[in-house]
Design brief:
alpha+beta; Aminopeptidase; elongated
Length: 404
């Protein structure tokens, strides 16, 4: 199998649960861990040392060998590299992650590459999948466990941007220090940016010369987030050609010469019997992954809503993330007496009144512009070729099996 053929694919739990992972490695080095109690506390020293002769560790050494989808990782998700063999798929490499919800961290519970395909960038690509998941789920850190004697693994994690965050001197046995196999905890921090302000980032109207870069930012923000791939970049492209689009209200967030956020406003309607009322909707509102969590989206939203109110618009209705928009004043549409066109209400169907009573005083059904639905898969595939799009990948939390 040539390196170019190594495809990373999801490993469904129902097929791969309980699969043994042969974690085998040989090392000539280890990190010696020494802990000393002092009168005013403790000192911990960790420094690299040399074994007298190479040491090899095998799965058979341990009472609890590594396996995929172990019961204590209830929300685990795995990806891997497979090859055909004897009528079934053989596992050549894998990564498994599991969210630690209470701390909003993502745990890498397994990472393994078969000896025959090591040093070909497979582990790097597998870790890139975990990093993408962390960005998509807005995790504040990725954490993992390795051993003080697995110097090769530690070196790899350092190269991937991980740093030491802790250790456990009796995780495996009570004499881990003497055996020189101490649990080492490492962490990767996707976002360490300060909150932005209007002084550090520009919120302004989009320029015509920026169209492609805006669409590229939108692709980066939505790729693999809700579906395999995305089509929001095509939506932005088509909005500009639609009479419902409002470029005078839409905004981009700019850091230097980089577009890092986008919000696009469009005219929409409320319909009650034979009566209609013009309101606003927007989509997308997005921020590129490396700038998420810095307040860019909030600044965009505040600026755009202020401009919409000054322009005389009374209300905005959207389909959006219910854990985000209520922080900015949005409420579920049932509180305004408004339903979708087919009479439904749900948590992600929300609105905000820019003028008191502008939504609740009318009610009715929300009529979304047809351009939001006119995104054929074939047209999107052709349009996406204009960009350097990442690989499509399945992630937990995606809405459905649809591929854009």
């Amino acid at each position: 199998m040539a390196e170019k053929d190594y495809e990373i694919v999801p490993l469904p739990k129902e097929q791969w649960q309980g699969t043994n992972i042969p974690m085998r490695y040989t090392t000539e080095e280890y990190y010696d861990v020494k802990i000393a109690e002092e009168s005013d506390g403790y000192t911990i020293k960790i420094h690299k040392s040399q074994f007298e002769s190479p040491v090899t560790h095998y799965p058979e050494e341990y009472d609890f060998p590594d396996k995929l989808y172990q019961p204590h990782w209830e929300k685990a998700y795995a990806w891997g590299v497979l090859k055909d063999g004897d009528g079934k798929k053989e596992l050549l490499a894998c990564i498994e992650t599991c969210p630690e919800e209470w701390s909003n961290r993502l745990m890498v519970t397994e990472l393994w590459v078969h000896e025959s395909i090591r040093r070909q960038g497979i582990a790097h690509r597998l870790m890139a999948v975990a990093k993408e998941q962390a960005y998509l789920e807005h995790r504040r850190a990725i954490i993992l466990e390795t051993q003080s004697c697995n110097v090769g693994a530690i070196r790899f994690y350092q190269k991937e941007g991980f740093e030491l965050i802790g250790m456990d001197s009796c995780c495996y046995r009570n004499n881990d220090l003497e055996r020189r196999e101490v649990r080492i905890n490492m962490g990767y921090f996707p976002r360490r940016k300060q909150k932005v302000t209007k002084e550090t980032i520009a919120i302004r109207k989009e320029k015509e010369t920026e169209y492609h870069r805006t669409e590229e930012a939108v692709l980066g923000a939505f790729w693999n987030k809700h579906h395999l791939g995305c089509n929001e970049h095509l939506l932005v492209h088509k909005l500009r050609q639609n009479s419902a689009y409002l470029p005078e209200l839409s905004r981009v967030a700019v850091a230097g010469d980089q577009i890092v956020g986008v919000i696009c406003f469009v005219r929409a309607l409320l319909k009650k019997g034979e009566k209609t009322k013009e309101i606003l909707t927007f989509g997308p509102l997005c921020v590129v992954p490396k700038w998420q969590g810095c307040g860019v989206g909030g600044l965009l939203l505040k600026e755009a809503l202020t401009s919409a109110k000054e322009a005389g618009y009374g209300g905005v209705i959207i389909f959006g993330e219910p854990d985000y928009y209520p922080r900015h004043g949005f409420k579920t549409c049932d509180q305004f007496g408004i339903t979708t066109e087919d009479g439904k209400n749900f948590d992600s169907f929300m609105g905000i009144e820019l003028i008191e009573g502008a939504l609740s005083g009318f009610g009715g059904k929300f009529i979304e512009p047809e351009v939001f639905l006119d995104l054929p898969k074939e047209e999107n595939a052709a349009f996406t070729k204009q960009f350097h799009a990442p690989a499509k990948q399945r992630f937990p939390g995606q809405w459905d099996e649809i591929e854009c």
